[in-house]
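@channel anyone free to eyeball this complex?
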Amino acid sequence: MGILSDLFQHMGLGFSVALTPVNLLFCFIGVTLGTIIGALPGLGSVTGVAILLPLTFGMDPTTAIIMLAGIYYGVMYGGTISSILLNTPGDAAVVVSAIEGYPMARQGRAGAAFSMNALASFAGGTFGTIMLTAAAPAFAHAALRFGPPEYFSLMILGMASLIGLAGSNPIKGLIMTAFGFLLATVGVDAGRGVLRFTYDSVYMMTGINFLPVAIGMFGMGEVLYQMEDVVDLDILKTKIRLKTLLPTMADWVRSRMAIVRGSIIGFLVGVLPGAGATIASFLAYATEVKMTKHPEDIGKGAIEGLAAPEAANNAAAAGALVPMMTLGVPGSGTTAVLLGAFMMYGLQPGPLLFKDHPKLAWGLIASMYIGNVMLVILNTVFIPVFVCVLKMPQAILMPLILVLTVVGSYTLGNNMMDVGVMVIFGVIGYIAKKFNYPAAPLILGLVLGPITEVNFVRSASLAQGDLTIFFTRPLSLALLLGALLSLVFPLIKILFVRIRGLRR
Amino acid sequence: MRRADIAGGLITILFGIFAISQAAQIDYWWKFGPGPGFLPLWASIVMVFGGCLLLIQALRKPKQDKHRPKDPQQIKRIGNVAAVAGLTVLTAVGMVYLGFSIAIFLFVALMIHMLGKYRWYITLSMALFISLAFYISFAKWLQVPLPEGIFGF
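replying in thread with the prediction:
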């Protein structure tokens, strides 16, 4: 009874914040921008949130975060548009949607694919948000009992799982995390107030700002990478009529359970640290391949193979906000940038967020229900508009993004040093992308570095300098073991494959 | 990728050693516990360790076939990237002297000219439109004090 009435109270508060005209407007702007950015091939959610973050300066923090989150989950809807029409995914989380979506479009069923995407996304997104509403207070409550050692171990777990699960080569992830962590130590030491690595530069004293680094790595780096080959992609020409827009009854029957399974897989994977919408969508698709009653259609436009990953990536996007908001540990590049956005507004995600800023926390969650309703309308009725967006020539899009990166990094502190840092990390981001060094661990190391160090120092002084405190407290030990497990997970995987190979 | 990873490993090791040398100058241990040099030192050590792993991993890979056809477009690709990166740097510097609006206008016009094959007046009007849109949204709506050059806007 208590829990339920708390829930209603929270949601009442949340909707009272989310339903104000300003917040509704910016939620709408956010989800629309998200759909557009998703639809544009090559621009993903992390790029979108990073380059548009500066536009929110001067807004009320709640409004800003509502808009940025709208971009994030809006991309999950919009990204599928280019997967279906171009066979080129608009975001890593919709890569698998092209496997069934593109053949559907070739069979003239693009309209049905769009609607199924919108509805499965809506189901997944709403399910994820409901679960977020229910799970967040429980997580926050449990995390309230965390002391500094547990926090330190949790941060290590967050970084380790991103290294172990994301990217093709965990060694490169490890290097990027350590590099990000080192960058975070520049400037005034958060634990003790000592200056480090400043080389007598006033700019370095304040530390390396997260935003120019993120804009450089994800914005400029991405554009430079695409500059290697500038080609306008061929859009499959399809006429979308209202009659073909709706999936048939048979499509529904086939996809019903796929949506349910996708939503559950998506949310669970999303909550895991280090795993995000991308892994969730792959898992959901793999499950459907095994479960489908029409194995002959797989790869040839099986609609359940589109519905499941779409439900999954949207549920995961909501699920990923659980550890980000309640523990302060993001599981992906985009949530790391969102975490950075919280911090820029002076908000520290963690168990106290719900206590100290209930309006923001519940307002954001409530806005996600509203945003999903807006998105399902945008992605069905207004789909022809977004298909037009795909026709935007690269010659215009690329300079537009570059100008945004320059202006955005300048806006932060109105100084050219930030622009310089942005350009340097733009070049680093390009090289990293070209040679497969994942950018998300670097951003995570940079964002989590200071809090990790503060908790490290606090733990050490709690134990009077005895560092075994991290291993003697059971919860902390468990978290560290989890970190170790996710680091050696890739090794276990390799071993497993080898053993299986030997048996054959 | 083998050669690139060997280079990447070496660069990481060198950077890590440099970071170790810098971190070692900061107090490693204080009376109450780890000093401000503790975590930077360990982060640098992890970098060197990661660099070594990457190097070993790359060296164990088989050498690529020498007769593998080289990507003939490679130089052109890197040229494109370098041109765009250089242009962005020039624009950032140009913003200080020419002012935001003019620098952005020139940048967008050059980029569109480089990437798209439009007639000159289309290129110019698109560049004008984009730079005006940026000026209005950032300088007027968002009230960002954008750099003004010698022309005063």
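from a first look: The first helix of chain A runs from residue 2 to 18.
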